[in-house]
Design goal:
Layout: H1 3-22, H2 28-45, E1 51-53, E2 59-61, E3 69-71, E4 88-90, E5 98-107, E6 111-121, E7 123-128, E8 131-135, E9 149-152, E10 160-169, E11 184-193
Parallel strand pairs: 1-5
Antiparallel strand pairs: 2-11, 3-4, 5-10, 6-9, 6-11, 7-8, 7-10
Helix pairs in contact: 1-2
Length: about 200
């Protein structure tokens, strides 16, 4: 998919959910900022060397290799990460109310199954290849970050280059990330390739 098409789809997705979310407490300035950060993250993906998913690499997890990702300390209330993965927040605004992180990866073989595990304090919008996978309502639901949630993402992936962009929000959405109001996101994509 052409870069402009992905950016247009990201714009459309965020605009589509922007108006109803105002009623749930997301400030339009937070959505606008996240939108700008999603576009910037998508553009930054072009400079990123993609992870290649082959027989040895079947898991892609958040860590400092993601675009705009700053590894952060895990809050004790959050689900524990597995080896090689970390909770992250936006490097460009480490204490801000919203963060956008992104990763490009290449799948060389046919996909048998694929899942996304997402633990986010507090809520998120997730795009894969410009298509919305997760659009959370603003909330402070503990189950979103412990135990987390899993999604079947097989239909969103394709053989070749794939992009994931995650916009994570603190709650209330105008509140900065702090010790008293933590925020973080952990994502893990697991891909099983056909033999």
């Amino acid at each position: 998919m052409h870069k402009r098409t992905v950016i247009k789809k990201a714009n459309h997705t965020v605009k589509k959910v922007q108006a109803p979310r105002r009623h749930y407490g997301i400030h339009s300035s937070s959505v606008a900022k996240a939108m700008r950060m999603m576009i910037a993250a998508q553009r930054s993906l072009n400079a990123q060397i993609p992870v290649v998913v082959n027989q040895r690499t079947r898991r892609i997890s958040t860590n400092r290799s993601w675009v705009n990702a700053l590894e952060i300390e895990r809050n004790p209330a959050w689900v524990a990460p597995q080896a090689g993965e970390s909770y992250v927040w936006g490097r460009n605004d480490p204490n801000g109310p919203a963060a956008v992180v992104a990763r490009r990866f290449t799948i060389r073989d046919d996909i048998e199954s694929a899942s996304l595990f997402l633990a986010v304090d507090n809520f998120a919008i997730v795009l894969i290849n410009g298509r919305s996978v997760v659009i959370d309502n603003p909330q402070g639901n503990v189950s979103f970050f412990n135990p987390g949630r899993s999604f079947n993402i097989r239909r969103f992936l394709r053989r070749g280059t794939n992009d994931i962009v995650i916009a994570a929000f603190n709650f209330p959405s105008n509140a900065n990330r702090s010790g008293d109001n933590p925020a973080g996101v952990l994502a893990r994509i697991e891909i099983a390739l056909e033999d």
